[in-house]
Design brief:
Distance between the termini: 23 Å
Shape: elongated
Number of domains: 1
Number of strands: 0
Helix content: over 70%
Structural class: mainly alpha
Radius of gyration: 15 Å
Strand content: under 5%
Oligomer: single chain
Largest sheet: none
Length: about 55
């Protein structure tokens, strides 16, 4: 879960810098890609933990 939070924070920082710094629009795109990767990671993490907790019951 820590990795997810770090990825989200990095995406937010990159997005803000990319949106406001002139000529650094590519950082906004990288921030969006990092945020999407964080969501994919969260989905995989939740699916694994959900399957594991059901097996223990």
């Amino acid at each position: 879960m820590t990795l997810f939070l770090i990825l989200v924070i990095a995406a937010i920082v990159l997005g803000i810098i990319g949106a406001f710094a002139e000529g650094l629009f590519y950082l906004l795109i990288i921030g969006i890609v990092v945020f999407a990767a964080a969501l994919v990671y969260l989905g995989i993490h939740l699916r694994r933990s959900g399957r594991h907790s059901r097996a223990l019951r």
